[in-house]
Amino acid sequence: MVFMSRTIVVTGAASGIGQATAQALEDAGDRVIRVDLKEGDVTADLGTKEGVAAAIEKITGLSDGVLDGLVANAGVSHPTELALKINYFGTVALIEGLRPLLEKSEAPRITVTSSAATLQGNDPELVDLLLGGNYDAAMERGVALAEQGPQIGYANYSSSKRAISRWIRRMAPTPEYAGAGIGINGVGPGQVYTGMTTELFSTEEGRKMAADAMPTPYNGIAEAEHIAAVHAFLVSADNARMTGQIIFVDGGYDALSRGDDIW
Predict the structure, then answer these.
(1) Which pLDDT band holds residue 3 (cuts at 50, 70, 90)?
(2) Which of 2, 59, 62, 127 reaches 20 to 30 Å from 261, CA-CA?
(3) What are the phi and psi torsion angles at 225 (to 5°)?
(4) Which amino acids are annotated catalytic?
(5) Do residues 24 and 31 lie in contact, with contact meaning Cβ atoms separated by under 8 Å?
(6) Domain boundaries, the chain
(7) Which CATH class is domain 7-249?
């Protein structure tokens, strides 16, 4: 089957991986609805219920009620509860809210930006609270972690990404997703040159600290375009069988940290 130009939403599209993914999709001939906090076709705070609802309403109008793909990339690396609001709760709410539009496509696909940080520094209690949808308890736990400083607070970020990865795998084979023909996968970047990492990678000390925390033996630190290329495939009609996968695009960190265990 030949698919014409597809309509795809990209969140966090004003910079970094989101911007690179939106550009790659447009270069391939797709129509992209760009979503971001302050600029784009849709501006919304995806860390709030009101912001997600407003984004869904605007996207529904711009897409005429039919979406072929969603790149749920928006996220923050804050060592605070803000990471929980955007990286997990906001992402899940947006995906679920746009699912009716995706169901109307002939080849609906979703891809989510996770992180290789899922493999380090998680707080199991927090992950369980997120997956259980316990918003208030998760926020309370996140605040408690953040109050212990950024090193402990980092668990907010890594736990939010681990939870969204597990949610993807949990939901992928269900009637609501696989049964509706909706493929959903995640991309787990490792070290990437983006606006968020500019300061970290600007000094030898910062680069060494990053390399010690998350080694990248295969081709070093990635550019945003390298991650975008994987997103672009996952959200394409050509990705007709892969679902429930977290693809680590991390220069080999996953293989180093987990060895030869396939999951």
Answers:
(1) low
(2) 127
(3) -65, -30
(4) 157
(5) no
(6) 7-249
(7) alpha beta
